[in-house]
Amino acid sequence: MTKADAAQGRPKDPRVDAALINAAIEVLTESGWASFTTTAVARRAGASTASLYRRWPSKQALAGAVARHIAQAELTGIDTGTLEGDLRELLTRKRRILEAATGPALLSLMAQAAHDPDLRQILRDDVYLAVRGELGTLIDRAAGRGESARAVGSAQIDVLTLVLIGTALARSVFVDTDGPDATEAELHLLLAAIKRG
Asked: Which among 21, 91, 105, 111 is most buried, taking Cβ atoms within 10 Å?
């Protein structure tokens, strides 16, 4: 072992990373932000708090890792060949996130972000920009296929991204169920907005 290796310590075990992320999702889902502590997450994962802090220096950073994990696992790599197919797949994946254990965890983080500037910035970087980037890619690809009448501007993509994320938040508060009719309505609104440019 070199001096550099010794200074860096043991390499991080990706299995511990995954266990800590999964434990964080479980704690957020069961107890919300108020009970979301690094100690609770480490205990749930069967890991030490030291191993957690080697990866993430604060609970906000850990929350960001959770959000990034959810966004990267579910919202990337969509390409069905049509704008309608791409948007339908994006909405299907969004619904899958919300119906899984990740849904309450993510909604808990978003609710807390209004009171926590650090968490708000993390979620902006790891959720909002991830969704916006994926939506922008879908729209650019559709324009290349001639599926939209005019270019969709940056400000319009911002608003469409907020619609995608905002409907999830609003439904969690105001609507008991989110059936296929709601998904179809959202799909057609997005299609109409994008095709009109």
From this structure: 105
